[in-house]
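Ticket #4471: structure export looks truncated?
Reporter: QA, pipeline team
Priority: medium

Steps to reproduce: submit the single chain below to the structure queue and open the exported record.
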Amino acid sequence: MAESFSTKVVAKSLVDAVTERLEAAIIAGELAPGERIREQTLATALGVSRGPLREAIRRLEGRRLLDRKANVGVSVTELSPQRLDDLLTVRESLEGMACRLASQRMSDAEIDDMRKLLASHSRRREIALGEGYYQESGDVDFHFRIAAASGNELLTSMVTGDLYDLLRVYRYKSSTMTGRTSQALEEHRAIVEALASRDPDQAEQAMRTHIRNARLYAQMALEKAEKEAETS
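Actual output as written to the record:
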């Protein structure tokens, strides 16, 4: 009985590890938007059997990072420029409101934790070198934490649910554009100081400015990728 239980835990942790690795590959662009997922090739590259890989793929389908189509198979989800612009326009309003509420509800200790979070981000090699601003999902994600601190469950679910993971892909892509990594970090710091000021208008405006800039850089990243595809 104990032996069987132990086996199940190991199998589950392997699926978790494969899921996290695939997620990171999608966010960082190792698996590009629109790219087909070839199970055997990927399983070999990861050094796992196809069983854990298939479960990881199912999980990422549920999180909208992968898309399955009949007679085509599974591929990395791809947003059109217009769809991305629409989503980030809505996101600006939602996250602006979340930041407004958070400025009124976060404790001083929580705001200090946000400063520590950004300090840890600034020490990362890729951020220090301006190569990109990758954030894991959940509580270590700056945007996730502010949404949760809004205290509004419906708003939090709208910001952190459904397309949250997919938008992280494009947030990362925008951060890889020249100059954007350091700019995004400074915008995050400005948001934290706006939260600390307890001024709802200032907090909302700081977040809206950040999302608006992210949208512009994401569009630039898509345009760059399209030009590279045309010349390749």
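Status: closed, not a bug. The export was complete when the record was re-opened. Leaving a note from the reviewer for reference: Residues 81-231 form a domain with the Four Helix Bundle (Hemerythrin (Met), subunit A) fold (CATH 1.20.120.530).
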